[in-house]
Design brief:
3 copies of one chain form a homotrimer. By secondary structure, chain A is of the alpha/beta class. The first copy, chain A, folds into 2 domains: 8-94, MurE/MurF, N-terminal domain (Udp-n-acetylmuramoylalanyl-d-glutamate--2,6- Diaminopimelate Ligase, Chain: A, domain 1); 112-310, Hexapeptide repeat proteins (UDP N-Acetylglucosamine Acyltransferase, domain 1, 3 Solenoid). Helices cover 14% and strands 28% of the residues of chain A. An 11-stranded mixed sheet of chain A has the order 9-12-15-18-23-26-29-32-35-37-38, covered by helices on one side. In chain A, strand 37 (301-303) and strand 38 (308-309) form a beta hairpin. At the A-B interface, strand 21 and helix 4 of A face helix 4 of B.
């Protein structure tokens, strides 16, 4: 997860959020925000939807943000009016984004450039970042603070790595792609879309190739992950906290919404779209321009919107072509 | 509108366009091009489609480009063979684009950088542009001439603001997005697509966040507008002269064609598409990957292509799944 | 094609690929890789699909990679287990990519800048590249090695031209578009997607305008071509070896998969998608968000997924809206 960047007591959180503590001493230290499933005793989680109450009861979180109606037994909770909004504010307090640490030189003096790196003019590299041996960095690439790259990477012109991006070995990223932009997360409060701070990062495995004008958002908390050997075509969009398996193929203009998981060897054909928070089983194939709204078992092959088994979709489209004639016949 | 950049007489326009003036003295000064609805006595408009003849009659335009068959009573007109092409040529004459005013330094000496701005290496800022106090400008951002930004903006690496872009306060724009590119406007003349000059600009309200690799075209004339509090996800496309309301949500890979208007609090789900010149009522929701070809009243919820009420679309897709079986039964 | 960059004998190829030569002297020189149709006596081709056996028999290729079951008569062949993978490896050997030839200065000393070029700060131009007279190059444009541009071009901020891109006269390319990225070509070998090297280039005709965040991949071998007078809107994707005709209109967020050919004056409406290896006849119109999976004759007008004649698609969608009612009636 994001690491302990600041510590605050449960009591201070309660005061700031205008909430009330239950089953929790006010001096309990809280040092990070985590999802219920990954929480540890020093972390804060939240429960916004009652259907996840069992997860909250089973969580090891030191403190859970809940609304006044939530029933999570004797767990330590902080009761607030809007747990999701309280969660967003807590991220800002516990995981503050440092200001960019720019130096007078395009390559920050604290950056580490390993051997045989080919560095073009017009590259900027941030504080404490590390460029793997034998990498080729083309003109106009911008690497933020605290990034790590393995050996043999190639970044084409205009590639942007936000703060804390991690690339494995032999990763190739084509022109004007960006890794680590903020995910699309807002909470409606008093008629305004308030931002849920995005403080995670992007992790890319070995031998991944990423096309041009691809966008991969960093996690809200923790990582958005692209597994080793996966190949991402031009203009693909990958949302925050997606977990893309190994050796997947994401063809041009496809898109994966936040927190969706792809097993290994999944293929998204061109312009396919997946909603958020679903799981696509390994070796599945999603047809071109199809929209998947539910999780799919291993080896699925679906097409259409909503996506259905490819054979059924073919049959229904053939039947649709005959429909005007069928209706005419029925009338006469 | 674009402001009076040059003045020409009606007679000179007639000579250049090989047209004939009616009800107009040849020495009438014309100093700008405007749509019929927004025209003033010193401006030139055009009527290409007879269904807008009433608008032409009601317009305050000093001169209207019309074809020989047009009937607009005793309004001052310039009769030409192809009014739209004449309009395009007139934009070029009356609103000439100045050459970029580059200096030897990346930050133009006439630019104004207000207090507490954090400016990265590798940034270029054009002539007469103004950067609001407390803004953060990342490496490789390119700000054109005559741009204005409010306080507290953050532009991530590779963001491009074309000439005359205006940003409100606390606007965040993610990597490699571009505001102010030319809209897609051509007129077919003699077997070639001749360009309709695009001389407008982009205006973005306070508290807007724009994702990575977003493209927003400037207006043909006047502004493309994004209302305050609106959030635009990665890889969204917004065409020339669109008017996007306040507090809208435009999810990843959605697209809005030219001159379309969105009311406040409209949501476009991922990959949704809107044709040009329509109006979407406030608080409407457009389903994912749906295509909207007609204006919609407030509070609509539509899905599919062509988009229909969401419930009807769900029913028709369920029926479609059963169709092959129904046809088989009908046969036997 | 890519030009003779290296020469190797048929016998050495056989040794490296662990294959066996038939009807071919081991000292035959091979100096380039070409498709069957364009092969010459000094070139290597491949036959991966038995349905193209006739093409292989008719080809002038000096040597053809085939699998053990292929029957191409007495043509000179190199029998290997996986001809496509052997082809990919041979490209790497015969058409090695030179390392980028960066100098200490952003404008390489061997680049040629013709008269009246307006060059912004922060531009990089590669070795041996040529900028046509009167061109305007905005900040942060990156032009690779061995590029050629005609007169009067304008490249907006962040445009990237990969190595060997060729632009005609009066070409305009908007912000953050990229020409010449690698096409999406892989071959599955032992559970990994091995890269098919992409060593071709992009050629753009006179008077072409390209929007913002457009991606055009270079050919695997040879050129991806955009014909003169064609206009490409924002966020369009064009795959490797596509041949786009003259005076076409490719509207925003449309995509063309590899090796597909468009005749002249073809229109792709917004978000349209074409699969690879098909031909679209001149003056065809592809409706918005439609997917075309088969070649189309001249003057087609199709819509939907799969795309069908526009009128039929309209009728079937109208019938679909009535389907739930029809099924209800049939039941009662």
């Amino acid at each position: 997860m994001s690491g302990a960047e600041r510590t605050i007591t449960a009591g201070e959180l309660a005061a700031r959020l205008n909430g009330s503590l239950r089953h929790c001493p006010p001096d309990r230290p809280i040092s990070e925000v985590r999802p219920l499933e990954e929480a540890v005793p020093g972390s804060l989680s939240f429960l916004a939807n009652p259907k996840y109450a069992a997860k909250a009861k089973a969580s090891e979180a030191g403190l859970i943000l809940v609304d006044p109606k939530a029933d999570v037994g004797d767990r330590a909770v902080l009761v607030v009016e809007n747990p999701y909004w309280a969660f967003a504010q807590s991220i800002a307090w516990l995981h503050p984004e440092p200001a960019p640490d720019w130096s007078d030189t395009p390559i920050h003096p604290t950056a580490t450039i390993h051997g045989r790196v080919s560095l073009a003019p017009g590259v900027t590299i941030g504080a404490r970042s590390e460029i793997g041996a034998g990498s080729v960095i083309h003109p106009g690439v911008h690497i933020g603070d605290d990034c790590v790259m393995g050996e043999g990477c190639e970044l084409f012109p205009g590639v942007v790595l936000y703060r804390r991006t991690r690339l494995g070995k032999n990763v190739r990223i084509h022109a004007n792609s960006s890794l680590g932009s903020d995910g699309y997360g807002y909470v409606l409060v008093g008629g305004r879309h308030e931002k849920v701070p995005q403080v995670g990062w992007v992790e890319v495995g070995d031998e991944v190739e990423i096309g041009a004008c691809v966008t991969i958002d960093r996690g809200v908390l923790g990582a958005t992950r692209i597994g080793p050997g996966t190949k991402v075509d031009n203009q693909v969009q990958i949302g925050h906290n997606c977990q893309i398996g190994s050796h997947c193929l994401l063809v041009s203009q496809s898109g994966v919404s936040g927190s969706t998981k792809l097993g290994d060897f999944v293929t998204l054909a061109g312009k396919a779209g997946l909603v958020g928070h679903i799981e696509i089983g390994a070796r599945s194939i999603i047809g071109g321009a199809s929209v998947v709204a539910k999780s799919l078992p291993e080896g699925s092959f679906v097409t259409g919107y909503p996506a259905r088994p490819h054979k059924e979709w073919m049959e229904s489209q053939a039947a649709l072509n005959r429909l005007p004639g069928v209706i005419k016949k029925l009338k006469s």
